[in-house]
């Protein structure tokens, strides 16, 4: 006999999965980044939909395993579904996630992904330390492929910028 999951079960499963930190940027969770798409109860199993930030992301398997482990630790049978469509976009990073990135010293994405300026790298990136917009890109790639490396010309601090995707 199949029993219906309660909304309380889904809420508990969501909370467990949503608390998983991103392995490459541990100041934000998978929910903050918007890569945890949903958690649904199906025949007593918590099924979590996870969208990678990009198809070649080296952390995607680690993220999926961490979400599964969090669900198991919360007492659920668990399954992860990789959701490739629609593709992830930095527009899905929550306001709280953007603030956490900034506080951690990473400039959050500043333009909508539909912006031509964002797509061609002509974005003005404010320094996460002092807020100055007098910054310069040092490298298209920072500590991970989804970030670019910048320097603030006002305070001289180097920082990563979470690129618009």
UniProtKB/TrEMBL annotation:
Residue ranges of domain PaaD zinc beta ribbon in the record: 118-163
Domain of life where this protein originates: Bacteria
Domain MIP18 family-like positions: 13-72
Record-linked Gene3D superfamilies: Fe-S cluster assembly (FSCA)
PANTHER family: 1,2-PHENYLACETYL-COA EPOXIDASE, SUBUNIT D-RELATED, FE-S PROTEIN MATURATION AUXILIARY FACTOR YITW
Name of the protein in question: Phenylacetate-CoA oxygenase subunit PaaJ
